[in-house]
What does this fold into?
Amino acid sequence: MLLQSQADEIQILPALPKAWNTGSVQGLMARGDFEIADMQWKNGRLSKLVVKSLAGGECRLRTGNALKTMAAGVKKSTAGSDYQYRFNTQRGKTYTFTN
It folds into this structure.
């Protein structure tokens, strides 16, 4: 409901229940040694996402709405109604995305 990681991609809020329209969660783990250190959503849309890289390497995210980031080298694309983000990470660093 909150996170799905498969096919080398982390999908954020893939099946959010309508009853959970607004909320937050911290500390979810995803494949590739990535931690969703902080995730917040409002009105069913992602408003903040902080990804921590525990091992370094490429991170690929998929979200249902567009996000902004100050992180360097983030490549953004669209696939249907989803947004995809692809970027290289360094071990121990965090990457923040906001709406």
